[in-house]
Amino acid sequence: MESIRTVFGKFAFKMWPFGLMRGRAAAGRSRPSAGARVLGCALALAGALVCASASPSLAQRISFIRDAEIETTIRIYATPVFRAAGLNPDDISVHIVNDRSLNAFVAGGLNMFFHTGLLLRVDSPNQLVGVIAHETGHIAGGHLARLPDAMRASWDTMIISLLGAAAAAVAGNGNAAVASVLAGQQIAERQLLRYTRTLEASADQAGVTFLDRAQQSSRGLMEFLQVLADQELMVIDRQDPYVRSHPITAERVEFVRQWVANSRMSNMPSPPGYAELHKRMRAKLLGYTDPSRALVQYREGEKSSEGRYARAFAFYRRGEMQRAIALADSLLAEAPDDPYYNETRGQFTYEGGNPRGSLPYYEKAVASVPNNALLRLGLASAMLATDDRTLLPKAIEHLETARGYEANSAELWRQLSVAYGRDGQLGMSALAQAEQALVLGRRVDARGFAERAERLLPAGSPHILRIQDIKNAAENLGPQTR
């Protein structure tokens, strides 16, 4: 598991904007008026839609977590729901945001995001499946594409009120001007809230339908909505973002409750293995994101596998590698072929300063799950860290295979550029650097490395067409930031 700090530019258009409207006021500053929040939200959305990659000031910095096991667990849960919605599971990207708040959203097209706070909060796999089904309802309903129309309608209301205020001000009636602006603000906010509630209800209805088709219970979605309903009773500053961006109404809760009361699938248990996957995911996340809490929750001498998993990652995060490795070994002794226990042992060994010693564990993990890009990236990275030139062809092979499953990883392209460079393939190294720069939105670098690759590779190389594609794509990027 690794934490990746990145610019959240490509997906700067968050699905629901009300976090901006109702978010916590900055320390030492007064909370903006409702109208100012609506106007600011409209401007932010307009900018994100038109030029998110072109405007560095619009990019949000978000910490992502990449982990082969956790991403696989979420995909196991989500795939039947995606298929029930008529969506191709391979078309939808899943992202984990390292944030303790309870939140999930879709953005940037077919992208689904889960905060670690939500993954730790859901008490059962069925609750998480319910959240996935709701967010799938937003994707299947095309809500992301329709939201700008609602924003424009609210914007029009704001403009009309501002024009009325301007006319009143010219006439010397300051009170009328203020009243006009306030009225426009309130109407615009109500319009947005009404539209958002409509889409939330629509996503619920689609979600429970997808769950029935997938022969899974909607009870988890009902339980989660009840958790959110309790959150709405809190002071705004204590609410989780999911509540502010997914407004709950009594009608929504009642609809899902009635569905559960009448659906033949309501008492269906979770599919076999889901409960174990859920315990492992939460334990691993807790150990990684909150080591102190993990060591309190799972005491010394913990016997359960999930407890030892949590403690292993807690010690790893605290730099106590020998204790982390000892726990990883205890897990492997019970399940020697488990790919993710092997990956964990490999990671601990590698980051403990012994990359060569990590190779057998990574190799076993890759042999078990050969189509996982992150596992192959881990193995290739360890191979490169040994500085053994005889391992370069194999490292390149693993990285090239990995990019077939995940071509938008900047780290994968970075490692590939290093591997090709050490192997003396300077043209391919430059091409990989161009790909990395393109993923990171660095226009100047992408074009520069692409031109260098073009000079270094033979004229008849099959990569020339890709080089031209990179140069064309780089022209569509905004100004480069570093």
Give the topology.
Layout: E1 2-8, H1 18-22, H2 34-51, E2 60-66, H3 68-84, E3 93-97, E4 104-107, E5 111-115, H4 116-121, H5 125-140, H6 143-170, H7 174-213, H8 219-232, H9 241-245, H10 250-262, H11 274-289, H12 291-297, H13 305-317, H14 321-334, H15 339-351, H16 355-368, H17 373-385, H18 392-405, H19 410-422, H20 426-439, H21 443-456, H22 464-475
Parallel strand pairs: 3-5
Antiparallel strand pairs: 1-2, 2-3, 4-5
Textual characterization of the structure:
- This protein is mostly helical and 482 residues long.
- The chain is built from 22 helices and five strands.
- The model is unreliable at 2-60, 150-171, 176-195, 233-237 and 239-246 (pLDDT under 50).
- A five-stranded mixed beta sheet has the order 1-2-3-5-4.
Following the backbone from N to C, one meets helices and strands in this order, namely: EHHEHEEEHHHHHHHHHHHHHHHHHHH
Strand runs, count? 5
Low-confidence stretches: 2-60, 150-171, 176-195, 233-237, 239-246
Q: How do the strands line up in the largest sheet?
A: 1-2-3-5-4
Instruction: Tell me the overall shape.
Output: globular
Gyration radius over CA: 25 Å
Q: Would you tell me the overall average pLDDT?
A: 78
What percent of residues are in strands? 5-15%
Q: What gap, in angstroms, lies between the N and C termini?
A: 26 Å
